[in-house]
Amino acid sequence: TSTTTEWAMSLLLNHPAALRKAQAEIDAAVGTSRLVTADDVPRLAYLQCIVSETLRLYPAAPMLLPHQSSADCKVGGYNVPSGTMLMVNAYAIHRDPAVWERPLEFVPERFEDGKAEGRFMIPFGMGRRRCPGETLALRTIGMVLATLVQCFDWERVDGAEVDMTEGGGLTIPKVVPLEAVCRPRPAMRDVLQSL
Ligand code: HEM
């Protein structure tokens, strides 16, 4: 959850227009006289698009978790004997140019108005062993992002692009942890001071 939030904020810092659009959406839906709440998050359609696009580009478990075939089976024409360890490359599936236009670019709009419906995305796996923490994770990421975007103006350190190098392994950490400059938004000062 924290890794995905860090990728999302990194992407927003490198795409200030998307950050402004998310802030405008929250201002219109929630205003600046109170903090965004968990009940608001489902109504923040663009914010959800940002989370989806982040999970498409940087799925926290890029190879899902290892599975093992419980019986001999055939997958995509390959014979898979019982007891074989199987890895699913969700990272490659999410960046497949046959499925996604401009697959390497951050374009949250591709998820707007159900446009991406039917496209195959599996950041939480699928089937019986699908991630049971999905709802909690999506709610947490949505709430944290919405609060950070509503309460603060964000800038890159010295204006330099945020480094997006990906670390290897079972998860997909940022090699260079995100550093950013945040300032309380003047319109939110009263709300923040009353906390
Ligand atoms: C962005 C956040 C998260 C992502 C991307 C994610 C992704 C995944 C993936 C890909 C799997 C493997 C699914 C498969 O075997 O095909 C998994 C399994 C699992 N996840 Fe998550 N997860 C996230 C957050 C969480 C949270 C917050 C919790 C718990 C509070 C959680 C609990 C679990 C558990 C217990 C399993 C094992 C399920 C099983 O094998 O039956 N996950 N997750």
From TrEMBL:
One Gene Ontology MF term: oxidoreductase activity, acting on paired donors, with incorporation or reduction of molecular oxygen
Binding annotation for heme: C131
Keyword presence, Metal-binding: yes
Names of required cofactors: heme
Gene3D superfamilies referenced in this protein's UniProt entry, alphabetically: Cytochrome P450
Keyword Cell membrane attached: no
InterPro entries tied to this protein: Cyt_P450, Cyt_P450_CS, Cyt_P450_E_grp-I, Cyt_P450_sf, Plant_Cytochrome_P450_Monoox
UniProt KW keywords: Heme, Iron, Membrane, Metal-binding, Monooxygenase, Oxidoreductase, Signal, Transmembrane, Transmembrane helix
Family: Belongs to the cytochrome P450 family.
The name this protein goes by in its record: Cytochrome P450
Organism: Aegilops tauschii subsp. strangulata (Goatgrass)
